[in-house]
Every structure is written in C-alpha cells, then in structure tokens.
Design a protein that fits this description.
31% helix, 10 strands, 325 residues, 2 domains
Length: 325
C-alpha cells in the first residue's frame, strides 16, 4: 500500500521483536529503549538507523519522551516488560498475583509500559509476556490500566512460536488493542533443520560461533549417555521442576530457550554455541550479538522468537492498511 509505519520498541532487548517487524518490510523503528548496555549495543549494531536509548523505562519522563517522539505520530508501540515477577519459573515471585504488578519494582515496569502507551497514543500496541501475567486478577487489573490511558479494547492473544516456524517451543501472551490471529505455518521446523549448514565452532565465517565452554569431565561422561530429551540437571521453579543441559532431539523442536538454559548438541558431545542457540530462536546468521558469551545467551533467551514476531507484524500490517483504505 505504500509508505512505512513507525514504531517504538520498549524493553527492546537485543531486537528479536523488532527484527520481525523489520522483516515485514513496511515498518521503521524510530526509538528503542533498554537499560542493559549490551542489549542496546546489539540493537544498534543491527538497526543502525534507529535511535537507541540506554535507559530504564521508568526514568523516561513524559517531557523527555515528547522531545524525542511526537505523540500521535507513532503507529505502533511494541515491548516486552520483564517477565520475572510473573513467571512460574521464578521461585521468589510474590505470592499475591496483584503484588507482582503493583508492589514488585520490576513488575511495576509493566505499568510504565502502559504509561508510555497512553502518552504516545499509538494506533496499535503489543505487549509481550508470559501467560502467568493473566493469573489471579492480573488480567482484569491490566485491562483497567489500559482503559485508564484511553484503550477500552484489550486482547490477550496466546500464541505459540512453534506454530509459526520457530525451531523451539515458546508460549507467550501478546496483550494488544487488536486481535492477533496470524495463520500458522504448515512447516514444522526441527532442530536438525535449524542447525544444518553451520561450519564447525570457531569458524570466522559465522559470527558468535566460537567454541562453547567445555563441560567438566564428570558432566561430559553423563552427557555422553544422555538420550534425546534427557537433561543433566533439574532445578526448582515456583511451581515445577525445570530441566537444564538437555540433549536436543534432532527431529523435534527444542524446548523453550531461556536466558539460563543451555542445550547439548544432538550429534556432538558439547554445548551449543551462541549462534546455534540463536538459530533456535529464528535469528539469521547476519544478526550479531555483542558483550560476553553469557550476556549473548541471555539476550537470545529473553527475545521474542523472530518467526513469531514477523507473523505478528504481518497481522498488524493488515490492520493498519485496512484503516487507510
């Protein structure tokens, strides 16, 4: 239909959500905000034309924001406030669900996302988080907070990344003022397909593909005996026991990639490289990560899977184009 639509990315991380919009070809990010230095540097390295602020969203005042972005001229605001206060993987989260939003300082960042949406008045907003953000009255509270800033329609769209060609599983809720029902892809992306074609670790041809840290000898022996889907260790979350150092099944999708998760290669007795982990989240090899290796793993685990982000962007594009018509 013509020109590009502008968007702002809050809690942008490395830029997985933004990359999906970029790949949809009709969007331009005018501002990205993240308080983690290496996430901001990674974002800037991959989106050099975007203004990137290394700043805590809660400290982004209305006057400062208005000096950067004209309210009413932003088409879309996307963002991924931290999920740690809400996720069942966090054994230290507040017992009372509403306290996770209103008392936990990190949970309050969700309210700051809503505050900025109310200030910028985009035609579309999309906030990504874990489905647990709907528990125990949280869903109703979030609806009321969005109503307070002028949005009377709020949808909680639960989407699974694996339904859109992502090589790893990930179920997330996308809170928005429009329904998001992207058509799923018929192609199931497996670990084998995701990792094929990569040179051996250490090749300078592919960025972020340095040899991974070696496992201690005892763990290495145990890893050798693991069957696909088995894990070296398990740890307690708030609600369940979670695996780590899982050996991947080449003919299945990988489990959910978390910042703390490490996977054992399906064919080689070693951990995945950063690049291999990035491929499990749909990042192309041209996407470069900065910072130390643990930071790179964490940024990948905290990202919105790129194929899912693109599917959402294409749905938003339909809505915006239909409004023009």
């Amino acid at each position: 239909m013509g020109g590009k639509y502008s968007y702002v990315d809050l809690f942008s991380g490395a830029g997985g959500f933004s990359l999906g919009f970029y790949l949809a070809n009709r969007f331009k990010c005018i501002l990205a905000v993240d308080n983690y230095k290496y996430a901001a540097l990674t974002y800037k390295a991959n989106f050099p034309d975007t203004l990137v602020l290394v700043e805590d969203v809660k400290d982004l005042t209305s006057s400062r924001l208005v000096a950067i972005v004209n309210p009413g001229e932003v088409d879309v605001v996307i963002g991924s406030p931290p999920c740690e206060p809400f996720t069942g993987a966090n054994p230290h989260r507040e017992r009372n669900p509403l306290d996770r939003l209103y008392l936990d300082p990190v949970g309050q960042l969700t309210l700051h996302y809503i505050r900025i949406v109310g200030l910028l008045k985009p035609r579309v907003f999309i906030m990504e988080n874990v489905p647990a953000i709907m528990e125990g009255g949280l869903k109703e509270a979030i609806i009321e907070e969005f109503k307070r800033v002028g949005y009377n329609r709020v949808y909680f769209n639960i989407l699974r990344a694996e339904d859109y060609g992502n090589p790893s599983r990930r179920t997330r809720v996308f809170v928005s003022n429009i329904p998001l029902n992207p058509p799923p892809t018929r192609v199931k992306q497996t670990v084998r397909r995701a990792l094929e074609g990569l040179p051996p670790p250490g090749s300078s041809i592919v960025p972020n593909h340095d040899p991974p840290p070696e496992l201690p000898w005892r763990k290495l022996k145990k890893a050798y005996r693991l069957k696909p889907g088995d894990a070296l260790i398990h740890y307690y979350g708030a609600e369940k026991i979670l695996p780590n150092f899982m050996k991947l099944d080449p003919d299945d999708q990988a489990p959910t990639v978390l910042g703390s998760s490490r996977f054992i290669h399906p064919f080689e007795n070693r951990l995945l490289t950063v690049r291999e982990q990035a491929r499990l989240m749909g990042f192309p090899d041209s996407f470069v990560f900065t910072g130390g290796r643990d930071s790179q793993y964490n940024m990948i685990g905290e990202a919105v899977p790129v194929p899912l982000a693109k599917a959402i962007a294409l749905e938003v594009l339909k809505v915006l184009d239909s409004e023009k018509r």
